[in-house]
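step: validate -> pass
step: tokenize input -> pass
step: predict -> running
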Amino acid sequence: MRGSNYSGEREAAENRALFLIDPFGYELDDVERLLQKNGQSIPETASQFADRVRRKREAPARAELIRKYGSRESVVAWQPLELRLRKAVASISTFGFGHRKEWVETLDGFGFFQASNLPQHVLELIASAHPLPATIGGAYEEAKYWRERDRELGLIFFDTINCQLDLPAYARFRLVERLLTEKLQSNSLDEVLLRARYGNENFPGDELIEQAILRDIERLVANPPCEHFQTGRGGDDKHQHQPQSTTSRRLEVEALLANRETAALSDREIARRVRVSPMTVGNARRRLSAGKEKIG
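step: predict -> pass
step: emit ->
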């Protein structure tokens, strides 16, 4: 069936075969290697054995991922933001990254190794695909999304490359990470903690991130956020902080709007979850759609 002239039959046969052999760590090419015409299998190399052990270990997570999307093809299909990014940079793209012929290889001559230091005109095209996060919370949510997307693709592909994202998506990911770890200004302790947590988990000991956190703390010490107090009767000041500051609520609203799974919720539903007014959510949605953070 794999040799059928009908693509649907070929895909069905391959998917069924993969379903049977994936829990054992094998791919279709492995089966063809093991089932030689003379009945003698070719011993696997140390590298092939290591790959098979890894695939076997990841098989349960891969099966759950395929159930989530419906098929392997749906997992690797371009997601909405990936499509917008590819469209935005189409005029400066070359294609054919390894055996992934449809994937972007360079952006105006710059490849994966230069993705963290792209020229301004390329960054502007990437930013034009979708408004950049305007807050630490929004940048944190988008960076988490790209890390998860990279993990999903890594469960399907078994290449030796470090990142599985298409180049425009990887460049966007690195740009958002730079906003999160260095460029954006933290306006509350909540945001400082998000920056510190992300840096500690992914870039422990990074001097630039530590300097950004230090600047945040110095700024907040010099200009502390307004605190709200409740004064009790009889002259006793209880000095009770509000359960959640205005900045924290705004951060939570923007994080929900930046998350692809919750952005489609109505303003009223997001307002209910965060305990703010629908008008506040609507204003935040318009601000995130219209504003673009300076990326130079």
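step: describe -> The first strand starts at residue 93 and ends at 97.
step: cleanup -> pass
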